C-alpha cells in the first residue's frame, strides 16, 4: 500500500536530496476519526516494517517496468504515494527518469530521500495536491499510483484521478494498483496500527478510472500474501492506462 504524514499538522514540504523547501498550508480534514494526519502518523510509526511485510512486489515491479519503458527517455514521472521510495522511485530513477515522489508521511519521505537521493520529494495530501512547482499541469509523461488511492475515501478518488489526468501530458501514462475490495473508508489493523482503507470491485474500479478520462490499456491481477499474519492475503489489481 502507498501512504500518505508530517509530524507537523497542516503543512506540505518539498525536498530534494533531503533538503527542505518552502512550507504551505494543507486543508484540514474534518473526518470524526481524527483526520488524515493520523493516517500518516500510523505510517510514520510503521517505517521500515512496511517493506518487510511486503518483500515480494512482482506486480508493482512489472507495472513500473512497463511505465519506465513506455515513456520517452529522461521523462518526468510522478510517484503518487511513494512511501519509502522502494521499489518504485528507485526503479524509475535507475531507468533514467526524473522522479517526483509525493506522500503525506514524513517518516516515509525521510526514508525515500535516503533510498533515492536523486529524486525530488514533496510532502502533500494526494487528495489535494498543491498547485505549482513541481506539480505543473501537463508536466509529467507518466504517473505511478501503487496502492495510494486505498488511503482515500471513495468520494475523493475520482477528483484525485482527474487531478492526475491534468498533471499528465496528452497521451501520458498511468500505472495504477488497488486491492480489490468493496469497502469505503473502513478501519483495519495494519502492522500494529490502525489505518482506514477504501477499494472497489474490479469492474467498478475500471469504470472510475475511465470516467476520469483514462483509457485502460491492460489489466493484471495477483493474489498476494504479505509476509506477516497481521495483514490478510489480498487480490491486487493493476491497470495500465493512457490519458484520453
From TrEMBL:
This is Ubiquinone/menaquinone biosynthesis C-methylase UbiE. SUPFAM superfamilies: S-adenosyl-L-methionine-dependent methyltransferases. Transmembrane segments: none annotated. Residues 1-11 have a biased composition (Basic and acidic residues). Residues 1-34 are annotated as: Disordered. Pfam families: Methyltransf_25. The lineage of its organism: Bacteria, Bacillati, Actinomycetota, Actinomycetes, Kitasatosporales. It comes from the Bacteria. One of its GO terms (biological process) is methylation. Keywords: Methyltransferase, Transferase, Ubiquinone. The keyword Protein biosynthesis does not apply. Residues 77-172 form the Methyltransferase domain. InterPro entries: Methyltransf_25, SAM-dependent_MTases_sf. GO terms for molecular function: methyltransferase activity.
Amino acid at each position: 500500500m502507498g501512504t500518505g504524514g508530517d509530524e507537523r499538522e497542516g503543512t506540505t514540504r518539498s525536498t530534494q536530496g533531503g533538503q527542505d523547501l518552502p512550507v504551505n498550508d494543507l486543508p484540514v480534514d474534518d473526518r470524526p476519526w481524527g483526520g488524515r494526519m493520523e493516517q500518516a502518523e500510523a505510517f510514520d510509526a510503521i517505517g521500515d516494517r512496511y517493506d518487510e511485510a511486503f518483500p515480494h512486489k512482482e506486480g508493482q515491479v512489472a507495472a513500473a517496468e512497463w511505465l519506465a519503458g513506455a515513456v520517452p527517455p529522461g521523462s518526468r514521472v510522478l510517484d503518487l504515494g511513494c512511501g519509502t521510495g522502494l521499489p518504485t522511485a528507485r526503479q524509475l530513477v535507475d531507468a533514467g527518469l526524473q522522479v517526483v515522489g509525493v506522500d503525506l508521511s514524513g517518516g516515509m519521505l525521510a526514508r525515500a530521500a535516503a533510498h533515492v537521493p536523486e529524486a525530488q520529494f514533496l510532502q502533500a495530501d494526494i487528495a489535494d495536491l498543491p498547485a505549482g512547482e513541481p506539480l505543473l499541469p501537463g508536466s509529467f509523461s507518466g504517473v505511478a499510483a501503487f496502492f495510494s488511492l486505498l488511503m482515500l475515501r471513495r468520494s475523493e478518488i475520482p477528483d484525485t484521478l482527474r487531478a492526475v489526468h491534468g498533471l499528465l501530458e496528452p497521451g501520458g501514462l498511468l500505472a495504477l494498483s488497488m486491492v480489490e475490495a468493496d469497502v469505503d473508508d473502513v478501519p483495519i489493523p495494519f502492522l500494529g496500527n490502525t489505518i482506514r482503507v477504501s477499494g472497489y470491485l474490479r469492474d467498478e474500479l475500471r469504470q472510475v478510472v475511465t470516467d476520469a478520462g483514462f483509457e485502460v490499456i491492460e489489466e493484471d491481477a495477483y493474489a498476494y500474501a504479505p509476509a506477516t499474519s497481521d495483514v490478510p492475503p489480498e487480490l491486487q489489481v493493476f491497470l495500465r492506462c493512457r490519458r484520453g
